[in-house]
Write a structure and sequence with these properties.
Blueprint: H1 2-22, E1 26-43, E2 48-49, E3 51-65, E4 68-83, E5 90-109, E6 112-133, E7 151-165, E8 168-179, E9 194-209, H2 213-233
């Protein structure tokens, strides 16, 4: 039994060692953008349409272990809400944020990959614009007041696929942003118990993998090795 356990451990060690030898750390930089489908989660609730807004930014990713890395971004992101008043008036607000997510990056695949990112983010309100029509002169709706808090934070989760062509890659992803901070003061003495950003974004990202000459040569050796193994496995006529 002890000999059997030793054999299993040796096989696991050999498999892990082979996987690590076949893996090379990756450093990727890129830029991208997309659309945000945004609302604000008010409590008490306010009837809203989905606001179609925009985002753009830059990113850097480092993969130190096979299937696992870390990704940081700096983005310009628009959020806000568009009220549904039943035709009585029109009111919408666009809030422009500078945000920084830092996420764990989990992927599966080689040239074509499927990935999941998850992590916290912080953001700071740069400015906001209101658009209104037919508001009553005595408008005192609490959600039409300037926001109380410029600092925002929350959780970001996304998934998508990525494809590589040489040193370049592109990714298409869907992302959900769950706000943990409120833009208006909350509590029993305030107008809202909750007023947090909730939105979905769809993004296209273009990336470049920085490689040294040594790593490029190593990658070519790996490709040749895999091609040779593939041909050896093919049935001979």
């Amino acid at each position: 039994m002890k000999h059997f356990a030793k054999i299993i451990l040796l096989l696991l060690f050999a498999t892990t060692l082979h996987a690590q030898m076949d893996f090379k750390p990756e450093f990727v930089i890129g830029a991208g953008g997309g659309v945000n489908l945004a609302k604000v989660s008010f409590l008490p609730e306010i009837e809203q349409h989905t606001s179609i807004l925009y985002n753009a930014g830059i990113m850097a990713r480092y993969v130190a272990e096979k299937h696992l890395g870390i990704q940081a971004e700096l983005n310009f992101s628009q959020r806000g809400w568009d009220e549904n008043s039943g035709g009585q008036y029109q009111y919408s607000r666009t809030m422009n944020y500078l945000e920084m997510p830092v996420m764990a990056h989990i992927y599966f695949g080689r040239k074509t990959r499927f990935f999941v990112n998850l992590g916290p983010k912080i953001a700071f309100l740069l400015n906001e614009q209101e658009n209104s029509q037919n508001l009553p002169a005595s408008d005192n709706a609490p959600q039409h007041a300037p926001c109380d808090r410029k600092f925002d934070y929350g959780i970001c989760a996304c998934g998508g696929f990525e494809h590589g062509i040489g040193n370049f890659r592109y990714a298409l992803e869907g992302r959900y942003h769950f706000g943990l901070a409120d833009i208006f003061k909350n509590g029993t003495k305030n107008d809202f118990e909750r007023s947090s950003h909730q939105y979905i974004s769809v993004n296209l990202v273009l990336m470049y993998e920085a490689k040294s000459k040594k790593q490029v040569a190593s990658d070519r050796i790996i490709v040749v090795k895999r091609e040779k193994e593939r041909k050896e496995k093919e049935p001979k006529e």
